[in-house]
Write a structure and sequence with these properties.
The complex is a heterodimer of chains A (324) and B (246). With 324 residues, chain A is mainly α. Helix content of chain A is 76%, strand content 0%. The longest helix of chain A has 42 residues. Chain B is of the alpha/beta class and 246 residues long. Chain B has nine helices and ten strands. Chain B has a six-stranded mixed β-sheet, with helices on both faces. A four-stranded antiparallel β-sheet of chain B has the order 2-1-4-5, covered by helices on one side. In chain B, helix 6 links the parallel strand 7 and strand 8. The relative contact order of chain B is 0.17. The model of chain B has no long low-confidence stretch (mean pLDDT 93). The chains are: A mainly alpha (324), B alpha/beta (246). At the A-B interface, helix 10 and helix 11 of A face helix 2, strand 6 and helix 3 of B. Bound molecules: adenosine-5'-triphosphate and magnesium ion. Chain A: Keywords: Amino-acid transport, Cell membrane, Membrane, Transmembrane, Transmembrane helix, Transport. Chain A: Belongs to the binding-protein-dependent transport system permease family. HisMQ subfamily.
């Protein structure tokens, strides 16, 4: 929370100067584009006559109408309650996006035909690879964080070498190193396990740092109180320190989960049939690249939204003990 | 025959080159109430934190409840579960309700059932007179209430001795008395206590012995009447005159 002041200030979008500036900016912006050839020009036909021949007057009228609609929209939304505001703005942005995609003239039947395979093979593999990697990375992160905070020289050295190395190399290179390098040592490894291993190790390194800073953020008094009751290291860590560190750890970890979901597309370079790989190959045959890329983009986005929702639920759960 | 709960012999402790404790000798017998006072930085906290080995001492012997404390000991938990400690800044577990704060010790250390731990916890919350706060979280309580929960949390382990490190010095004046009343109640019931505090009225009322520390040494000790009426050392006189001036 930004903890708003209790003194009500006037809503920004209802201040005359703000509306005026906004109007002028939008008006100027659309004056520079010639929209008379688009569907917007068609809509304005009753006012400006034949759009293509309307010239400077047509441009002016179109920009004026857009600026009025935009400002009216913003001012009206300003009256709504917070939740309604958020919903309306989301929907409007989404509509704009759809309008943008519509300009590609996508073939919907083609998308509908390929979508099932994209989901059952591609999305499934993506989620499967990321989910396993996330679990392994979290386990590595807890061990790594404890090692980095310990006074044991070996543990610290190994953990800091590990985080330094895996944060220091590009993930793509790690994928190649593991897939092509391990067989040199005599371990033949399949593409999927190799991908999972690379993702786990790389994200484990980043998350080690997140967990370490989370654990460090807990006041020393909590350790002392826990010890003075008689709890050993295990209980102190699991039941006292980690639960308090979680609210600090969760937001950046949520970021990592979402980022991992998309970075899993890097394992397509070693031939894993995940979402990105399929999106590229399925569209190739009939040169319908955009259809497949946009379908895949929507699927990635959808899963990310699910992760965001889960994260906000967990954050709310941990906010309980902070409420006064 | 009296029973020694804490026995400190010729203890010294250093932080790097700085000597915090110098040749400290002290015994605490069962049922004894001891108040430790002294100027800031004299090593009072450090001394009582050695009693449950939150701090390590380098020279001398400390025996608590029959168990000697040293770096190689395996059963430090055995000592700690018998020694309750109350901190200046309460150090309650903020992610647990007040009731859970009091239940976890017995449940996770002694393996007591949840129902029984709950019964004990409620009983001790009753005793510090805040049973109605049991289901709140620590941040929702006032400082004085939090400190009383901290006392209840320690009592739930049914320790042989309670250590207090300036339990009232982070509190507003009107909350000090509610905590001191709780502590006086404990003393009446025969709890063995070692309190670091500057509350001289409390010391006068409940202490069997007042100990004055300066620069890591025990300078003077005695029964409260004698200690306050005619202190022997110049340093003690100065300290008492400063603290009683207000
Ligand atoms: N971790 C540490 N490292 C170095 N020096 C320390 C450390 N902890 C305490 N000291 C020093 O040891 C001395 C004794 O500290 P201690 O906290 O025991 O004093 P105190 O008598 O409890 O004082 P106060 O009344 O202010 O709480 C102080 O001079 C302090 O600066
Ligand atoms: Mg102190």
């Amino acid at each position: 929370m930004l903890y708003p002041d209790t003194v009500e200030s006037e809503v920004l979008v209802h201040k005359p100067w703000f509306v005026a500036v906004m109007f002028a900016a939008i008006f100027a912006l659309f004056l520079t584009f010639d929209l008379s050839g688009t569907s917007m020009g068609e809509l304005m036909r009753p006012v400006i006559g034949e759009p293509l021949e309307s010239g400077i007057y047509g441009r002016f009228a179109i920009a004026f109408v857009i600026a009025v609609l935009f400002c009216l929209n913003v001012v009206l939304i300003g009256f709504a309650s917070l939740r309604v505001q958020i919903t309306i703005v989301w929907l409007e942005l989404l509509l704009l996006f759809l309008a943008f995609f519509k300009t590609f003239n996508l073939s919907l039947p083609f998308m509908a035909e390929k979508l099932p395979f994209l989901v059952t093979q591609g999305l499934f593999t993506t989620i499967y690879v990321s989910a396993i990697s996330i679990v392994i990375a979290s386990a590595i992160a807890i061990l790594g964080a404890v090692a980095k905070l310990s006074t044991n020289g070996f543990a610290y050295a190994i953990a800091s070498f590990y985080t330094s190395f895996f944060r220091g190399l590009p993930l793509l290179m790690q994928v190649y190193l593991i897939y092509l390098g391990l067989p040199q040592l005599g371990f033949i490894i399949d593409a999927v396990p190799a991908g999972i291993l690379a993702l786990s190790l790389c994200y484990g390194a980043y998350m080690t740092e997140i967990f370490r800073s989370g654990i460090q953020s807990i006041d020393r008094g909590q350790w002392e109180a826990s010890r003075s009751i008689g709890f050993g290291f295990g209980i102190t860590m699991r039941k006292i320190i980690l639960p308090q560190a979680l609210p600090v750890i969760i937001p950046p970890t949520g970021n990592q989960f979402i980022s991992m979901l998309k970075d899993s597309s890097l394992v397509s370079v070693i031939g894993v049939w995940e979402l990105m790989f399929l999106a590229r190959t399925l569209g190739q045959k009939s040169f319908q690249h955009m259809e497949m890329l946009i379908s895949a983009a929507m699927l990635y986005w959808g899963v990310s939204i699910c992760l965001e929702l889960i994260q906000s639920r967990i954050e709310r759960h941990y906010a309980r003990s902070k409420v006064r | 025959m009296s029973e020694k709960i804490i026995d400190v012999r010729n203890v010294s402790k250093w932080y790097g080159a700085f000597r915090v404790l110098t040749d400290v000798n002290l015994t605490v017998e069962k049922g004894e109430r001891i108040v430790i006072c002294g100027p800031s930085g004299s090593g009072k906290s450090t001394l009582i934190r050695c009693f449950n080995r939150l701090e390590a001492h380098q020279e001398g012997d400390i025996v608590v409840n029959g168990i000697p404390l040293h770096d190689k000991m395996r059963n430090v938990g055995e000592v700690r579960k018998n020694v309750g400690m109350v901190f200046q800044h309460f150090n309650l577990f903020p992610h647990m309700t007040v009731l859970m704060n009091c239940m976890v010790g017995p449940m996770w250390i002694k393996g007591v059932s949840q129902a029984e731990a709950r019964k004990t916890a409620l009983q001790f919350l009753e005793r510090v007179r805040i049973p109605e706060q049991a289901d709140k979280y620590p941040v929702q309580l006032s400082g004085g209430q939090q400190q009383r929960v901290a006392i209840a949390r320690s009592l739930c382990m049914q320790p042989a001795v309670m250590l207090f490190d300036e339990p009232t010095s982070a509190l507003d004046p009107e909350m000090v008395s509610e905590v001191l009343d709780t502590m006086t109640g404990l003393a009446r019931d025969g709890m063995t206590m070692v309190c670091v505090t500057h509350e001289m009225a409390f010391a006068r009322a409940v202490a069997d012995r007042v100990i004055f520390m300066n620069a890591g040494q025990i300078v003077e000790q005695g029964k409260p009447e004698e200690f306050f009426k005619n202190p022997q050392h110049e340093r003690t006189k100065l300290f008492l005159s400063q603290i009683l001036k207000h």
